[in-house]
Design brief:
Layout: H1 8-11, H2 14-31, H3 40-49, H4 56-64, H5 70-88, H6 98-117, H7 138-156, H8 162-182, H9 188-212
Helix pairs in contact: 2-9, 4-8, 5-6, 5-7, 6-7, 6-9, 7-8, 7-9
Amino acid sequence: MSLGLVPARLGRVLAPLVVVEAALVAVLGALVWHSTNGDRFDSAVARSLYAGPGSWVRGVASVVTVFGAAGFIVPATVLVTVWAWFLFRDRDRWLVLFAPVAVLVPFLAGRVLKGAVHRQRPSTSTLLQEVHASFPSGHATSSAALALTIALLLIAGAVSWRRPVIVGLGVYAVAVSLSRLVLGVHYLTDVVGGICLAGACVLSCAWLFSRGGGRESNPPDGDRPSHPL
């Protein structure tokens, strides 16, 4: 078995957590299936967070949202993969493949869901010429997947400076997700669905990779790093 990507405390609730996240994605998808507008709650949140053209809030959101686009996610994933190679090459090379797989799987799942649910975006999305289906948010999915992937690798590698970085990763994913609402290109349910999808996919990949590594690359039991959350 490979080095664990799932810390002990998380491992005890991993299965129900993945089930709950997957169920939330399914329920939200069913609720907004082929929807042409938001419900009362979605619409209220969209109105309260939307920032119109010319506002400084919209300017900040326009910059932040770039960090959830493919142009950032792809090279960032490549860099994380290279970093994982140096971190795990002497212990478990199997884990080097975790980053690209854990980021790609939720992205592809999100694409499938977009086509299946086929929810229309808010009318305010026309300003940015966002024309693809709305649920789930691709930016929220990709940023949450990248953040969770890096966090799990940091824990698995017992990196000493992991705690502040993990907090920063959480702020990053929330900021990107929030930017989609400020720009008016998604509803809250799109963002929540994307985050839940990322969580379910990345945690499932982490479990699979933790079960699939080669025994020959493992360190002796006494040399295994601990994985406190």
